[in-house]
Amino acid sequence: xxxxxxxxxxxxxxxxxxxxxxxxxxxxxxxxxxxxxxxxxxxxxxxxxxxxxxxxxxxxxxxxxxxxxxxxxxxxxxxxxxxxxxxxxxxxxxxxxxxxxxxxxxxxxxxxxxxxxxxxxxxxxxxxxxxxxxxxxxxxxxxxxxxxxxxxxxxxxxxxxxxxxxxxx
Length: 169
Prior knowledge:
Membrane topology: Lipid-anchor
Shape: globular
Domain GH15-like: 3-94
Number of helices: 7
Number of strands: 5
Family: Belongs to the phosphorylase b kinase regulatory chain family.
Distance between the termini: 48 Å
Order of helices and strands: HHEEHHEHHHEE
Pfam families: Glyco_hydro_15
Strand order of the largest sheet: 2-1-3
Subcellular location: Cell membrane
Strand content: 15-25%
Helix content: 40-55%
Largest sheet: 3 strands, mixed
């Protein structure tokens, strides 16, 4: 959240975007319909890309920062596991974020608002893990716990893990 207020940008964002485009993927940021959802079909300079993301996300600075984070993680996966993207022509980041929040709401049996807050509070490791499970279609589990953030408050923390396969042998 603080990153959004300070209009921070991810340093490798333009490179990540270029990696996705070089793998023949179009990107959209923001939510449909257009003109709010913006399509990226060619590499953009970092400042222009960041501006486009903030415009597409409207007043929601948290979503703008999360969008940047998701683009970087998608680029990591397209480089290391291109088969995850075999049937995808367009990566709609806003809809990916919606699916992530919906899956958290389902798994945690909570409201969409609570799930969105949980999504924003995921550690980078759990964010990448959730994204990978959604892209791969693998089953995943979510655990909720209380983790102290500082000496005066606690916030519910969640962790994403792969569901183990059990069966008769």
